[in-house]
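Intended use. Records like the one below are meant for learning the mapping from a protein sequence to its folded structure. Do not use them to infer anything beyond what is encoded.
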Amino acid sequence: MTSVTKMSTKRSSPRTAAGKAVSSIVSLRPTKAFRTYKQAIGYLFEKTDYEKQTRLRYNVDTFDLKRMGKLLAGVGNPHKKLTCAHIAGTKGKGSTAHMLAKMLEANGYKVGLYTSPHVVDLHERIIVNGEKISEHQMLGLINRIYATVEKMLKTDAPTFFEIMTALAFMHFVDREVDIAVIETGLGGRLDSTNVITPKVVGVTSISYDHMNLLGNTLDSIAKEKAGVFKKGVPVVTVPQDPEAMKVLKREALATKSQLIVTGKDVDFSYRFESSREHGPHTRICLTTPKTRFEHLRVPLPGEHQAINCGLAIAMLDKLKEDGYEIDDEKAAKGLERVSIPGRMEMVCYDPRILIDAAHNAASIKALIHAIGQHIPYDSMVIIFGCGQDKDIRGMLTELQYGADKVIFTRSNSPKAAYPEELAEIYTEICGKMCQTTLSISEALRIAYSAIGKEDLICITGSFYLVGQARMKYVPN
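Structure written out for the chain above:
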């Protein structure tokens, strides 16, 4: 009975608070700055976008949470009216966030989901119960934040990501969500999302990525990720490299946060199998005093997604402990509805073309392994392009183990690495022949001429490249 009473308080408070937030935000609304969505979105894209910059300093000047605080204060501090779950890590953040959101939705909660970057459509970043923010809603939000942004331009201009994050918080308040699942952008400590105080924090697998910004060692990268820990807020993570785990334990101790590791503090296991009904897939078992999943089929292919799924369920279990009414059977049904663009997505079947936004060495390794488990093929042609700020050598080292032929190309991102440079490093690593081209269209033309019926084309390396490829084959 106590649990039910607690739950009703928790579920009603976000809605009550949301109502207050809406009224406070509306009172700050200026005269309309933009009449059309095109004008508003053009204004947004004019702002500094660190996702597209090639040279960037990662410090409190560039990534300033005080600036984010000022921006949010100007629109009524919507983040303080939200109940949240926060997810950091190197790989698997988006997948974990989507799985957690779907399990909560299936249990009757209205769930906000904020992820980045997008694959094709900017609106993919802000979702409520599977519904992307509309152009009309985006126009209204940008008009509401316009006066605050303009005022800050004189002293400390907010960035594209900061504005997007604020828009997400505002939208979730407007929609009166019960809980918002928030994925960090870059790092954690200085990330724009790190203004929230969540109910639970999840940390996915930590590996090398953005080393020019976060550091060249796993402990420095882990410390940045652990910057999202808040005093007394439970943290759930997956098995990590000992170097990274040592940091997570130290930071959890410093913030007096309970640290739960799947497979250690939570009974968790997974296995790969194949059946007539589902084909190749992975199943997991996870048991806690409040939760029991046995032989649950993971909705996304790859053993790495089994680990992400275990993390999402363990986070759900902590919310259950906090009073959220969660039915495991409904949660399992929610998982069945998980579908994420650009994650091992077959966008064409004649010829077979697979896209996956694997954007670091660990992700490339997981992708190659997952393709080997799930997709039979005679030969695989990989079309690859990535950012200049990535662990290029690490990614290309993993690429050689799955590719029969590699075509290096370049996306339309200003910080995309040049194909000739990628080819030079690849040849130096493995001595294999490769080809280069400056467009995805030309890369596909070359790939078409090199494959047979039983072969596979895989496009990977960056969200930008995968997004361009997806637009060619999937109607938006």
